[in-house]
Amino acid sequence: MIGMMKDIKMGDVSDFRTFMGAVIDKKAFDKISGYLDDAKKNAKVLHGGGCKGDEGYFIEPTLVESSDPSYRLMCEEIFGPVLTVYVYDDAKWAETLKIVDQTSPYALTGAVFARDRAAIREASAALRNAAGNFYINDKPTGAVVGAQPFGGARASGTNDKAGSKMNLVRWVSARTVKENLAPPVDYKYPSMLEK
Predict the structure, then answer these.
(1) Residue 182 belongs to some domain of the structure
(2) What is the pLDDT of residues 108-163, one digit of tens each?
(3) At what angle do helices 93-103 and 117-126 cross, to 10 degrees?
(4) Which domain holds residue 31?
(5) Which of 57, 80, 86, 145 has minimal Cβ neighbours within 10 Å of its Cβ?
(6) Residues 80-99: pLDDT tens digits?
(7) C-alpha closest to that of 142 among 121, 160, 163
(8) Which residue has the higher pLDDT, 184 or 48?
(9) How far apart are CA 4 and CA 20, in angstroms?
(10) Helices and strands (DSSP H and E) totals, the chain
(11) C-alpha–C-alpha distance, residues 100 and 115, integer Å
(12) Could you write out the DSSP letters of every residue in 104-138?
């Protein structure tokens, strides 16, 4: 992971070789910098942690390890290039799923990476309400706006799936009307007929 983070090119987004630009404004820069200051005191910064605000508001891709699953960087929405990890014992998988589900009031996006289909099914069920968007073995960022429903749950949003046709359902009272121009003359369906 650190090798990939070292490879990330930061800079001017008009250069398409650049993977990551600056954060949106000084307010976001100051907020994320504050999280990183906290991480340096209360967790372990494994990579990154640098902030440069002289030309643009650049936050270095950062990997933080916490031994406390309720540490603020594990629970709050940072909206910056900061990944906080908590290492759990494999034997405590079910317990860890409960921790993930109960730790944060936010529930925007989540992902599980696993090869074991039973573990994937278990995580998908246990984390049903822990993310408005849930990814399995895929990057948990970048919903395709206009094509993929997108919306948070809990304190992250109303789960109304903005960005797709599904969002329209929030504003209407859906009703289905079916008109048959060749009315049935029997109660049976064609699938019920003998062959």
Answers:
(1) no
(2) 888 899 999 999 999 999 998 888 788 899 887 766 666 666 667 777 776 665 66
(3) 30
(4) 1-87
(5) 145
(6) 999 999 999 999 999 999 99
(7) 163
(8) 48
(9) 13
(10) 5, 9
(11) 19
(12) -SEESEEEE--S-HHHHHHHHHHTTTS-SEEEESS
Q: Which percentage of the chain shows pLDDT scores above 70?
A: 87
Predicted confidence band at 182 (pLDDT cuts at 50, 70, 90)?
A: confident
- Is residue 48 within 8 A of residue 20, CB to CB? The reply is no
Q: Report the CATH number that the domain containing residue 94 is assigned in CATH.
A: 3.40.309.10
CA distance 172 to 44: 49
Q: Is residue 185 part of a domain?
A: no
Q: Domain tally for the chain? A: 2
Q: What is the C-alpha to C-alpha distance for residues 46 and 65, in angstroms, rounded to an integer? A: 7
On whether the pTM is more than 0.85, the answer is: no
168-177 burial code (b ≥16 CB/10 A, e <16): eeeeeeeeee
* 142 found inside a domain: yes
Asked if residue 189 belongs to a domain, the reply is no
Whether residues 105 and 126 share a domain: the answer is: yes
Query: How many Cα neighbours within 13 Å face the side chain of 186?
Result: 6
- From 65, 87, 109, the end of a domain falls on 87
